[in-house]
Amino acid sequence: MSRHPNPDAMEQLLSILDLEALEVNLFRGLSPDVGWQRVFGGLVVAQAVMAAQRTVDAERHIHSLHGYFMRPGDPAVPILYQVERLRDGGSFATRRVLAIQHGQAIFSMSASFQFDEPGFDHQIAMPDRPAPEDLLGEQEIKETYLSKAPAPIRKYWEQPRPIEIRPVSLTHYFSNTKLDPQQDVWVRATGPVPSDRHYQAAVLAYLSDMTLLDGALFAHGTSIFDQSLQVASLDHAMWFHRPCLLDDWLLYTQDSPSASGARGLARGSLFTRSGVLIASVAQEGLIRKKANA
Q1: Distance CA 93, CA 73 (A)
Q2: Could you give the CA distance from residue 207 to residue 164 in angstroms, rounded to a whole number?
Q3: pTM above 0.85?
Q4: Which of 28, 202, 253, 255 allows an S-S link to 182, with CB 3.0 to 4.6 Å?
Q5: Element (H, E) at 15
Q6: Mean pLDDT of all residues in 77-90
């Protein structure tokens, strides 16, 4: 089990995930000021997951979600989450969530929930990668590389965050060479996550949006540090395979099979340190040169 380097940041995230119930099927969530001009997409997904979970039987657990980002979220105002109860079947329950700001939809999500039951069980193997302890820590990354990053990215990295990231390789971020469209990143919670599976699923959804589109840029000799690029998530899909306590490092293996039409596709697999596949992720993002670049 890992030592928690920054429990306060995780406590803040958990507090923000504890949505305010306004009415039946209607919830309100806040967004912290992390230096971005828009709300982090992973937070919107995580809060939508929490809203949906609060309308299903406590013994049903999320197994998949499919969402679309429609407008950038405004961090200065709350987000309303409106849940529609589409179906409660014998095994599965389906919910649709609409996130609203300024009277307009910014995100929509469909999610499916299931009671735990036994069945066939297999998974792909986790690739052999260096352990997180053998890689540069966040403080070392900040001291060595952040001076090269744009001001908004420096501001984001320099403040306490609920998720720590340790890329297996940093070459992609500071090279203009066209590299393989893939990467491996160790991630962990910087503070304790409750054993409640609803919170675990929401935190996992939150971190699943981190670094995922990066691989789509590596194939073109660029990265998110390139200020001439406009990069934004368009959609997000996730499948929750097995529960996990989130008390240790997770390996997030990612690749980008295609980019075309100003869009890039990215896929990811999340493994525990012991090699258990806990979730799969897919996302398409907008990738284009800014008009004035």
Answers
A1: 28
A2: 10
A3: yes
A4: 255
A5: helix 7-17
A6: 97
